[in-house]
Every structure is written in C-alpha cells, then in structure tokens.
Amino acid sequence: MKFYGLVIIGISGLFLSACGMINEKNKGKGINLFTVSQDKELGAQVAAEIDGNPTEYPLLDPIKYKEIYDYLNKVRDKILNAGGVDYKDEFEWRLRVIHDDNTLNAFCTPGGYIYIYTGILKYLDSEDEFAGVLGHEIAHADMRHSTRQMTTMNGIDFMLQVLAGDQVALTSITSQLVGLKFSRNHETEADQKSVEYLCGTDYNADGGAGFFEKIQAEGGSSVPQFLSTHPDPGNRIEHFHTAAVGLGCSGRNDYATEYKQMVSKLPK
Predict the structure, then answer these.
(1) Is residue 94 scored above 70 in pLDDT?
(2) Which of 2, 87, 100, 150 has the fewest Cβ atoms nearer than 10 Å?
(3) Which residues make beta-bridge pairs with 117?
C-alpha cells in the first residue's frame, strides 16, 4: 500500500510538472492546467485576432503615433525593469492603444499582450496613475490570472479547442478577455503587485489609487465594467495606500506635466 501511494504521488508530480505548476515562478499563483508556453501561444492568437479586426479594435498605428508609443513603452519598461515581474523575459509585453474615447478600459492577454483604450489614457491625470493601472494589467498576465479564470469559466476542453486554432472558440475567448471579470482575490493580487512593481521605481507606488479616487469623487457612476466586480473602489484605494506604506516605498514623482503633453497628442 505504501509503494502504491508513492507511485501515485510520483505520477501526480510528473503531471503537475508537465502542466507547469511545479515551477519557482508559479509559486503562490494557484493551480493552472496550462503551461507558460500555452499562455504565450494563446496570447499570440488573441493578439492576431485583435490586430485583424480594426472595426472592433481600431489600433493606433505604432509608426504614425511613434511619440505616443515611445512614451507608453518607456513607462512599461520602467515597470518591467524594476525587478518584480517574474515573466519579464518570457512574455511578449507588447503594448497597443485602441482608439475609443468612450471606453475606460485596459487589459492584458495571457503571454503579455497589453491593450490600453484612449478613453482611460485621457481619463487619467498623471504618469504614476497610468503606471499604476499598467502595473495592475501586467500583474494579471504575470500571475497568469486569465488562463486560471477562463479554465474555470470554459472548461479545459474548450480551452484546448482555442489552442488548436478553432476560430469560433478563439473569437469567443477574445471577447471574454476584453471584459473579463476577475475574482476578488485576483483583483486584490493585481492591485498588490502594482504597488510592488512601482515600489522599485521613482513613481508614487500607490499611483493606481488615483484612478479609483477620481471614480469615487464622481460618485462612482463611471466605474468601468472590468473594474466593477469587487472589492469596491473605497477598499481598493485604502489597499493601494496601505501597501505602499507597508512596503516603505519612497518614490514621489507623478510626472503629470509630461503625461498631459502625451495625452494632447492622442487623436481626437
């Protein structure tokens, strides 16, 4: 009986390893039946779907709007180079801007393909606020929240269809990712990670709180769907500030002037 138990444990260990769960970078990130390579593959497929659908996702041309992308990529790189992103070298971390001023949204696919709507860029007031939102989205990919969440929502068979290239399934997954509602724990983890990432920079580490403070000041009526799940804005504001104090973060720069100059160059 003891030998049989050891065999089962051994087989289970091989299975978990094959699924990418026994990995130093995966510690504390929950059970995920998909490997890091599959995260990257899924992200690339979703990015291709978005790139090929300009009607629904009107992306700003990286060449025509080079100044905008240079600025946003500088912020992205500052976060990635601060030392807290586990999959900094494995994931793509490609950033694209969607021209839609009516949408307060941002999302990051598995594998690190980042999408920011012009609506949220124009809504934010400073670079540290943008860095806080961006850090939150990077955290969702780095913590592999999307594949964990979508596996629960869709089941492994459906996710395997997506990875096999089923176009109907892929289109469905793309739509889900744009407005994906993460669990309370996932949102809290992403907020915490945003503070940790920014703590290694010269930004206000709790820059992500600025977005929620503005929402709250307006009575909360404009809370975008992707952030309306939970916890509520008031709790999230407190979490950002408390985490920054607890970590002893010393950055104080908001670069508000530079940020507003960048926003002025966005298309109307």
Answers:
(1) yes
(2) 2
(3) 98
Q: Where are the alpha helices (DSSP H) in the chain?
A: 2-18, 36-51, 66-80, 118-123, 127-142, 145-154, 156-163, 167-178, 184-199, 209-217, 233-246, 256-263
90: left (phi over 0), alpha (psi -120 to 50) or beta: alpha
User: What CA–CA distance (Å, rounded) separates 206 from 249?
Assistant: 9
Least Cα distance to 42 among 137, 147, 151 occurs for 147
Closest CA to 84 of 131, 139, 39: 139
C-beta separation of 144 from 170 below 8 A: no
Mean pLDDT along residues 153-167? 79
The amino acid present at 20, given as its one-letter code, is G
Nearest to 262 by CA among 116, 139, 138: 116
Report the length, in residues, of the chain.
268
Whether residue 224 has a cis bond before it, omega within 30° of 0: no
CB-based contact 244:261 (threshold 8 Å): no
Q: Is the per-residue pLDDT at 105 higher than 70?
A: yes
pLDDT at 235 over 90: no
Residue 203, pLDDT score: 98
Q: Looking at residue 131, what is its pLDDT?
A: 98
The pLDDT assigned to 32 comes to 73
| Residue closest to 192 by CA, chosen among 247, 230, 233, 144 | 247
